[in-house]
Amino acid sequence: MAAVPAAAIVALVAGRASFGSEWAIAVCYGLASVVMAGIVYAFFFGLCTGLAVLVGREDIVARTSRGAVRRESDQSPSEDELQPSVEYLPNPSGGS
Question: Mind telling me which residue stretches traverse the membrane in this protein (predicted)?
Answer without folding.
Answer: 30-56
